[in-house]
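Q: What residues go here?
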């Protein structure tokens, strides 16, 4: 089985869970005799290609002429412009700058005009995001032409690549699988960006099969996007994470205090403000604990101000965005991990924390809650319950040990191999 797969990022160059998931899936698929050509907007040359062949879209010269301009798909591409709020990895300063500049970056060339172009993608989530999504689709069509006969199925990950997947399908006639890692409703609540929503909806309706990372996400695809239920399959994520313990390394703490960690984008979806409120409640009862917020995002300044107003700044630390070894080190330093997401389609980070022998408190509104028994689950808005859970794990060592031991045992059974077996069956059913 040969798969042409479209993604937006791939380790070690990642900004969130999407790249981590793509790496885990492709590595597991390789053990099932599935060959994957993985396309990214921009490759850097240092990606691990032991299990996958990386195709750099920035190296492809695409023929833009000759497209069917009466096709609604290409008509829509011709006027996509930058007014999306899907920029979760920017700092507050970058976020403001993007909106000041966004009118200058509009992709308006008519697709009926023939020309050839090699476009160097940034592969980021900045001001030209929508332009890159549109151009990625055109380049994807060229890649599908160039690789004719070298793949059996197309697989596109998240909305950023859905038009690329559709373009490749129309050129090759091969079946398309789209993978929904997060919906626009997860990112923005009910205040959805209609352009992103339409890309998601068009992608799922054009696909032959839709993979959702949780039953919760599957239900959203069916109810909010009108996708037939028999078309959507739940494929839970796994975990592939090396810890400092695996490497036999000791991490120096430098403090005697307990450490409670939030690691993720500092955006509405991730619930950082609830973490802060729970921290204040815990600190009103105990003082030998520090709270760490590792990440960046458009809510960072708001959170910093709230920490200051609550008078807990001396017990609260901001690390900025972490990746690679720094993530391992942060988990090794942590006594408790908190994921208070307002809406989390899955959530790989609690699995990584549990692999590091760290007990977790997660929101009931997360997909990962479907597969975990040995994590404490609370409603994201219930900061009293969240604070009580943190306090209990801090003050009762036997409870903490139970969640550590049972959690590690449980998480070691949640493997990408399980997801790969489901995907292979889906591929075979479509070929």
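A:
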């Amino acid at each position: 089985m040969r798969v042409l797969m479209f993604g937006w990022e791939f380790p070690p160059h990642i900004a969130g869970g999407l790249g981590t998931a793509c790496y885990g899936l492709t590595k597991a698929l390789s053990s099932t005799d599935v060959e994957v050509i993985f396309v990214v907007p921009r490759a850097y040359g240092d990606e691990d290609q032991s299990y996958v062949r990386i195709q750099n879209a920035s190296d492809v010269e695409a023929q833009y002429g000759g497209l069917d301009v009466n096709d609604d798909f290409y008509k829509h591409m011709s006027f996509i412009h930058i007014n999306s709020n899907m920029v979760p990895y920017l700092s507050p300063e970058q976020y403001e700058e993007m909106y000041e500049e966004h009118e200058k970056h509009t992709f308006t060339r008519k697709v009926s005009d023939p020309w050839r172009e090699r476009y160097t993608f940034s592969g980021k989530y900045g001001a030209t995001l929508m332009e890159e999504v549109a151009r990625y689709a055109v380049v994807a069509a060229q890649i599908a032409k160039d690789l004719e006969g070298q793949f059996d199925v197309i697989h596109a990950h998240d909305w950023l690549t859905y038009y690329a997947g559709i373009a490749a399908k129309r050129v090759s006639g091969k079946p398309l699988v789209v993978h929904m890692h997060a919906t626009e409703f997860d990112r923005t609540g009910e205040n959805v960006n209609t352009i992103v929503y339409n890309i998601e909806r068009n992608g799922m309706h054009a696909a032959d099969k839709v993979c959702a990372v949780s039953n919760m996400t599957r239900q959203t695809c069916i109810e909010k996007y009108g996708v037939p239920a028999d078309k959507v399959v739940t494929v839970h994520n796994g975990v592939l994470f090396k810890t400092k313990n695996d490497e036999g390394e000791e991490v120096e703490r430098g403090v005697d205090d307990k450490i409670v960690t939030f690691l993720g984008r500092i955006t509405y979806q991730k619930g950082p403000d609830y973490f802060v409120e729970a921290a204040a409640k815990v600190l009103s009862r105990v003082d030998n604990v520090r709270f760490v917020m590792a990440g960046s995002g458009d809510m960072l300044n708001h959170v910093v101000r709230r920490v200051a107003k609550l008078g807990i700044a001396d017990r609260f630390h901001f690390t900025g965005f972490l990746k690679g070894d720094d993530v391992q080190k942060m988990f090794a330093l942590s006594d408790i991990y908190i994921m208070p997401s307002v809406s989390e389609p899955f959530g790989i980070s609690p699995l990584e924390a549990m692999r590091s022998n760290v007990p977790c408190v997660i929101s009931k509104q997360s997909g990962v809650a479907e597969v975990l028994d040995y994590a404490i689950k609370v409603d994201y808005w219930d900061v009293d319950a969240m604070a009580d859970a943190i306090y209990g794990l801090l003050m009762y060592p036997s409870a903490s040990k139970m969640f550590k031991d049972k959690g590690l045992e449980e998480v070691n059974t949640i493997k990408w191999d399980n997801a790969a077996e489901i995907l292979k069956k889906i591929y075979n059913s479509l070929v």
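A: Context that may help when evaluating the design: The CA atoms of residues 263 and 327 lie 8 Å apart. Residues 2-238+416-430 form a domain with the Rossmann fold fold (CATH 3.40.50.2000).
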